[in-house]
Amino acid sequence: MSKKEKFQIPFQMKKIISSFLVLSFVLFSCSEKENESKEKQNVTEVVSTVVGIGKVLPKNGIIPLSVSQTNQVVALYKKMGDFVQKDELIFKMKSVSEDIDVELAKSNLQSSLDKNKANAMDLEIAQTKLNELKQIFLTSKKLYNQKAETKQKVFLDSIAYVQQLQVVNQFKLNNIANIQSGKEKDIQLKSSINKLEDQEFRALQSGVLIRFDVTLGQVLSSNSVFGELAEISDLVVEGEVDELYASDIKLGQEVDIFIVGQSKSIAKGTITFVGSSLQNKSILYETIGEGSDRRVRRFTVTIPNSNQSLLINQKVECKIKI
């Protein structure tokens, strides 16, 4: 092998290595640019979406169910999940306190009747005595006219007669008052008996019983909510977004709805309401302290078409495209 050939071999190897280095640099530069482009795209995607938390509700809201006084359920016709029409009978009940009211009314009426009876007997005795005193007074007056009785005796007999007359008149007034009182007590008793009869609880509007904690024989406390009636209407999501992103929320923005903890969208909607101020977090936040660290802005998402994947009172995540 000549010297020239020996010199060309290393030279060619250097040339190949240089070309490889240049190619590697070019590929590395392209890879870096591609990674930067992807990172920029990811940053843009993150910035363009705000996540809020919400609850699925009927558009027209939910009516809480309660009774105005303590009652016991005596007949049950509906259960949770049933559809009801307006004024449809849900259950029958009777008042727990009305039993006592009836017994009290009976006692008051009997007391009034006994008092009337006693007053009538007293009136009869007083009337008999009045008749006797009247006869004595008339006899004394007649004897006085015949000059067989003193003037003082006639005077005393007249006073006794007048006083007894006043007693009789008072008994008569008492008797009239007692009779009237007895009539009032009788009315009270009839009213209490009517209240004791079974009362009906009917639906205030058409809808579905999404909560119904009622069993046969149960005693329902006054003004204590035992159920919820949701009107049959389109569903919406009442949501909240953290105050850090409050200014990014606007009317008309599109929203993807997800079940909490899942990555597949189950519905789509549009923001149709945005709160004008920040408020405290609601019960949508279940972690201790989660509802008090920062404030939120409320929003409503309208869902154009009914979606069977959504359930009333379901907690969902709302990814808002800003």
From TrEMBL:
It comes from the Bacteria. GO terms for cellular component: efflux pump complex. PROSITE patterns: PROKAR_LIPOPROTEIN. One of its GO terms (molecular function) is efflux transmembrane transporter activity. This is HlyD family efflux transporter periplasmic adaptor subunit.
